[in-house]
Amino acid sequence: MCGIVAAVAQRDIAPILIAGLKALEYRGYDSAGMAIADGGEIRRVRAKGKVREMEALYDADPVPGGTGIAHTRWATHGVPSEKNAHPHVQGRIAIVHNGIIENYASLRESLRAKGRTFHSETDTEVMGAVIDEHVQAGRSLREAVTAAVRELEGAYAIAVMSLDEPERIVGARRGCPLLVGIGIGEHFLGSDAQALIKVTNRMMYLEEDDVVEITRDTVEVFNLDGQRVDRTAHESEISADSVERGEYRHYMQKEIFEQPRAVADTLEGRIGPHGVLPNIFGIDADPILDKTRGIHIVACGTSYHAGMVAKYWIEELARIPVVVEVASEYRYRDVVVPENTLFVAVSQSGETADTLAAMRESRRRGYLATFAICNVPESSVVRESDLRLMTRAGPEIGVASTKAFTTQLAAFALLALDLGRRRGLDGARYLDHCKELQSLPRYIENALKSEPEVLKIADHFINKQHALFLGRGAQYPVALEGSLKLKEISYIHAEAYPAGELKHGPLALVDENMPIVAVAPNGPLLDKLKSNLQEVRARGGELIVFADERAEMDTETAHVATVRVDGGGDLIAPAVFTVPMQLLAYHVAVQRGTDVDQPRNLAKSVTVE
């Protein structure tokens, strides 16, 4: 994910910009750059690769100045290179940009017809040229930015500076985050509070279609009609060190509660009112995804469960057959690879040994291409894949993965919807699902409110040695994930089954000493699930049911505890119902006194076979 830092100050701001970019490195990027207004000119320092490489260029030839913008870029339009790195300059304008502009090609052609020359392959430089056209027509920088964004289709967060107003920066946002850092005699823009926390903890979060103008002494926010609007400044609660636990007892608890933000970040700038935005999977994605006729998903542990959910989504929405494999098994069998099959590797760390080895093995097996879903941009899985979609979970310290799982689900949902659109998914249904996906952070936020009820249920597990999790359809992988979380951190033996398999063996285990956890969303399989639960109840089993608010469930019978959750729609329900089961595992482990964040025998990143 690209990152933005900008500043107007009474001091040289290059060190601030560089420090801010380093704080955003976890987001993922392939080039970095900054531009500073210096004595009547805009001086740029840009480099392909890491911030440290750009910093070395700056150290060799320092650029003084109190007004500047900086950026880390993840390539969408144009390959990673110095010429495609931000900031871009057009005329007397310099600009940095997060997001994707959908109509940049038509804008570029009309500008070329007017005599404009472009030096990069990016949509961002086109934006800069549009703004410069308005400046040349006599508009102020803010007026020019406001007029320009009215012409844009897509998602953006931008910071713009002009030689004509060298002590002023204008920002704007739509679909991508942008915030203001408020100082004394200095103000900042950033795409993430973490980029600014070392210089100020007072933040002002901009809303959709806001245009902000900052100087050393002022911050003014306007709507697209040019009217001033009020935005409240807040003191940020994050620390300068993103891996601090803060108010939470454990990292795992903190990361569970970070999920609304993490999922929102994963979706930001990738989905808009007209659907999934172009080029989010890489600049070479279109011909590959258009040819895809089969998918093999390979992963381990929690990531494997995310792939299992994705199988339901992709097959239903895109009608493409999907095979999901445990990486350690895939490596050692003779896999049949149908023509035009896409290999998808899923890993939180990007260094999981079996997954990485499986991806390397896939190279000789004739796949169409490799695709990575990962949280760590510098990882081997990402570097070695043809296409990639970075999750934006941020640092995950707890060994038991939580926000990595829900962000992987968000990433897979984007892929499923995009493939569905390419394969003729009904347009109205496609847009409904896109709208549903955009609401996922809100539904996760609501699901977190179930914690007090879950805490009471955790008491039932303190002295238990076994538990059984049940789910149907896309909720079966969620049951698997719930059982994995419980066994990882509480050391209770837990298994998960499709609920319809009860009669084929697991029912023999059911008695009053084994809690049965069931996931009951409101859907076509609800009645089937209720029949399965009656079988458990008839054997005296203790049922814990996570049920959709709209599902009709008998909660009056003894031995049944029900937690109501608003699961949203069918697409997002697996991610929503995952949250209370994470809370259950966490609170059971706390009450049993285990080491929640570092459970015995486990490591965060499994880098050996």
UniProtKB/TrEMBL annotation:
Its EC number is 2.6.1.16. Residues 2-217 form the Glutamine amidotransferase type-2 domain. Its main location: cytoplasm. Pfam families: GATase_6, SIS. It is an enzyme of class 2 (transferase). Residues 285-425, 457-599 form the SIS domain. NCBIfam families: glmS, PRK00331.1. Homodimer. Catalyzes the first step in hexosamine metabolism, converting fructose-6P into glucosamine-6P using glutamine as a nitrogen source. This is Glutamine--fructose-6-phosphate aminotransferase [isomerizing]. It comes from Luteibacter jiangsuensis. The gene is glmS.
